[in-house]
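Newbie here. two chains, one complex. Structure please?
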Amino acid sequence: MTLPHLADPAGRYRTMRLIRGFEELALEWVRAGHVVGGTHPYIGQEAVAVGVCAALDPADRITSTHRGHGHVLAKGADPGRLLAELAGRTNGLNRGRGGSMHAADLALGILGANGMVGAGAPIAVGAAWASVRLGEPRVAVSFFGDGALNQGVLLESLNLASIWRAPAVFVCENNGYATTLPASAGVGGSAVGRAAAFGIPAVTVDGMDVEAVRRAAEEAVERARTGGGPSFLECLTYRYEAHHTMERRFKLAYRSAEEVAAWRARDPLTAAAAALPDAAALDAEAARLLEEAAEFALAGPHPDPAGAADHLYATALEGTAG
Amino acid sequence: MTLLSYPKALNRALADALADDPAVCVLGEDVGAGLAGLTLGLQQRFGADRVVDTPLSEQAFTSAAIGAALVGMRPVIELQIPSLLYLVLEQLANQAHKFSLMTGGQARVPLTVVVPGSGSRSGWAGQHSDHPYSLFAHIGMKTLVPATPGDAYGLLASAIRDDDPVVLFAPAGALAVREDVTAPLVPVPIGRARVHRPGTDVTLVAVGHLVHDALAVAEELAPEISVEVLDPRTLYPLDRAALTASLARTGRLVVADDSNRTSGLAAELLATAAESGRLSAPPLRVTRPDGTVLPFAPALDRALQPSRDALREAVLTAVK
């Protein structure tokens, strides 16, 4: 069963709008001091998370990145609990222990955003392999950026997935920059070429077109589900905002205003809205969800410092380590 | 009398765990052939999809095991060389160890890492002879160093049942040890030290293979000095209560720790002893020197490791 909130174009648009609104609110909350530590805004990349997750079932799994809010919301996490997590509240997804970069909801198959670039890929491969072993074939998707293409562990993971024919989908969100390093200066050869070298079917799609991403993801997920092994999608996309909300302090200028404007002109939400009769109603629905989310998040209590070491171990320590 | 060797004990613990629980699996390089001795016969018995030969991709298969652990399996990974732990420090320290806390308790990572032949095997030189258990105790991962076949069986059994990541170091210097196991092999709780030999004059805490050296020294000195030999077995969590209780009997402490001196486990044991207020004489430690990298030639290799002579000397000094 497909994720119900992404089952039709209206649902996909509404979720993209929810992600966009969430990220705009998060930026406000960083400025207001509600969100500590800042965030890595996903604005501009919404079509990738929504397009890929539209191909997934609720039981499927994802691993995400430091820029993970979009993936987490697209897979179905509660926006209020995600916002509460960003604000470090006990009603957050991770009880305020993870924050923006580690948001997880294991019950929804969200195995965590991850602060180490490329680290989610082998975890997804392992989850995919294990699901076959456990007789409950579930697809595992790993989202990562173009920067992760240069992490050795990601290349090792492509090989492992290939030889194991793991039901895994590697989704490279190529937004053109590894923080400030242009992909042209960081990626030798091509992303899809790297995957193809490991015997993995790989395609490049327009990451600003949610339906194009969805179609490619459906093909990849179908291959995984039917024993055809892993696939690789390179989604060409763009982040409108800074790498991190701290960036503005330094007034970095590694991208031209023209370049940003050219990508903004291809906004995935504008394009999707044009194909819908009642986008305005969906906008209002997303806005209402966000209002509720904000109310829920701000009502959450801050954690008690006495519990700062809670949840470190799943089982109690039997010794007397202090 | 039935004699059980150390590698056979680990092999039996793995076999029993695989037989008991379909969620248990083993991943590692050359585990099908059983190159390190741990997994001999297991692939034939349990299948290549449960005892999985991996490519030489330590980072990927370690993290894949983490992913598998997150979704309901109980993987054991074998790293045949201790220095490979440095390769996968990202996966163990940053991922496996932190997941439970970072997810607010949603995630469990029942991963076991076994390092068969940690420390010097003499002639294996700089990149194959480290004994990095202190590093993992410092990180706060559950860290086990069994000294005997029975403890090797029991601690590995407990590690696999534990819902947290656990690293088990099988010291190269203990692999030749055999033990009479007419009594049934049972799980050994994580976090409990073992008094191998009671004594009243001095507590000699020894880790891993050094337990056997400590027992030999204690026996040798027995006519004059009563040495209590204490094996923590679990370096994290550390059984501080057992150490304090032993010091209450002896008031003197020597620690034998085959890892580097600065910030090593011995330093932690000495600090714990000092905090306990039970010491009647300055504590001593016998360790590798600061920043040791083991040289190749056997005489050089041995010169940097805690020796029986050094242990004896330290005990004699402690009781003066």
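Moderator note: Chain B has a mean pLDDT of 97. The longest strand of chain B covers residues 253-260. Thread marked as resolved.
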